Structure formats: C-alpha cells, structure tokens
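Appendix C reproduces, verbatim, an entry submitted by the partner laboratory led by Prof. M.T., so that reviewers can inspect both the input and the predicted structure.
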Amino acid sequence: MNYSQRIRDLREDKDLKQKEIAELLGTTQQYYGQYEIGKRQLPLEHLKKLCIFYDVSADYIIGLTNNKKSYKEKE
C-alpha cells in the first residue's frame, strides 16, 4: 500500500475532512488533496506532523510495515 492511501485511510478513520488536515499541516485543502491522490509527494515535515497527529510510525504511513505503533510506543 502506498502512503497516499494510508494518509487517506487514517484521515477517514477519524472522520476528518481534507481541509482539517491541511490546516494542521499549514497548507491548502487542494494541496493536501494532491498528497492523497499521489500527484504530489509528501514532504518530510508533513510526514512528521501526520505521524505525531495520528500517533503512528512513519514506516506505517510509507508502507514499510502494517504495524501502526508509533516510535514512542516501542521504547
């Protein structure tokens, strides 16, 4: 699974709108929407914010693992 689908699934699981996540990231809904459809690459600073917000690992978002555990849970 690619990160576009993962970030969409995470957002939808929390019943959030693209606009709400865009505001969290300091960008527009249109720009964020392009992350979810794979037209624009997700910057590392946005990846980090999403990991913290959703409390998941970057490995999970980018598809290296199916384990959602965040870094802090592994300590």
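The radius of gyration is 12 Å. Additional entries are available on request from the coordinating office.
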